[in-house]
Amino acid sequence: MAKLEMQDELRKTKTAAMSFAIGAGIAIAGGLLLILMLVHLLAAFTMLPLWECYGIMGGGLLVIGLIFLATRKHTAEQIEVVPQQTVETLKEHSQWTKEQTTFNRT
């Protein structure tokens, strides 16, 4: 029974992951097309050469990406890999078990 439930949950997870991947791929393609549109729009309204417009747009996206990565790096550094409350609870349980087994021997 548990095996069937696990297989069903795995199938649901696989379906959800595939849907997410397809959606993400389509969103990325749409984002790229919008960026290309913005480059050509900038070229049309500024009379700059197309290569300069690509440089401006690429540089702007690079700066935004670096700012985003820097803030996420700061957030990631604050994550505790070892859960301190769990460690303390395990120490307390270990001490309690040790006391109980020592108490029962006397």
Number of domains: 2
Series of secondary-structure elements, N-terminal to C-terminal: HHH
Strand portion, in percent?
A: under 5%
Largest sheet: none
End-to-end separation in angstroms reads 46 Å
How would you classify the helix and strand content by structural class?
mainly alpha
- Computed over alpha carbons, the radius of gyration is 28 Å
How many DSSP-defined strands? 0
Q: Mean pLDDT across all residues, rounded?
A: 87
Secondary structure tally, helices: 3
Stretches with pLDDT under 50, minimum 5 residues = none
Oligomer: single chain
Principal-axes shape call: elongated
Q: What portion of residues is helical?
A: over 70%
Give a structural overview.
This protein has 3 helices and no strands. It has 106 residues and is mostly helical. It folds into 2 domains: 1-47; 50-106. Helix 1 (2-46) runs antiparallel to helix 2 (50-77).
What layout of secondary structure does this protein have?
Layout: H1 2-46, H2 50-77, H3 84-105
Helix pairs in contact: 1-2
Describe, in short, the structure shown.
The chain is mainly α. It is built from 3 helices and no strands. The chain has 2 domains: 1-47; 50-106.
Keywords:
106 residues; mainly alpha; elongated
